[in-house]
Amino acid sequence: MDLTNRIHQYTRGAWTFDVIDSGPIDGPLVVLLHGFPETAHSWEQTSELLHQHQFRTLAIHQRGYSLNARPQSRFQYSLSELVEDVASLIEQLGQPVYLIGHDWGSAIASGVAMKYPQ
């Protein structure tokens, strides 16, 4: 993934996730995971604060919220799938990130940290 450009989407398998990429393009990366039933837009005020401290924020519209990542089966919304969605983005970024979650997003962030502590 080219980090010198804004990231608007990323894919994992058949699913395409929308991303709100803002802040200094060369800042340390912070991935933001919204809660239920919120969207990535819920991070707007927090993102502004992070930008003031030179962080670049990537707020993901998670599985079920991105137009092209809405599986029909409830079994495709397991915590393990949601964790892998986020881990895939981080792997594609190719560098460590700060990971912040709110509500259900915090369970996903914890799952990523436990499975991929690096």
What does this structure look like?
There is one protein chain. It is globular and about 40 Å long. It has a single domain (9-115), classed as Rossmann fold. The mean pLDDT is 97. A hairpin with a 2-residue loop joins β1 and β2. It has 118 residues and is α/β, with parallel strands linked by helices. The chain is built from three helices and five strands. A five-stranded mixed beta sheet has the order 1-2-4-3-5.
> Mean of residue pLDDT?
97
Portion of residues in beta strands equals 15-25%
Counting structural domains, the number is 1
CATH superfamily assignment?
Alpha/Beta hydrolase fold, catalytic domain
Count of extended strands: 5
Short description:
The protein has 118 residues and is an alpha/beta fold. 31% of the residues lie in helices and 22% in strands. The protein is globular, with a radius of gyration of 13 Å.
Topology readout:
Layout: E1 9-12, E2 15-22, E3 29-33, H1 44-52, E4 56-60, H2 79-93, E5 98-101, H3 104-115
Parallel strand pairs: 3-4, 3-5
Antiparallel strand pairs: 1-2, 2-4
Name the features.
Rossmann fold; 3 helices; 118 residues
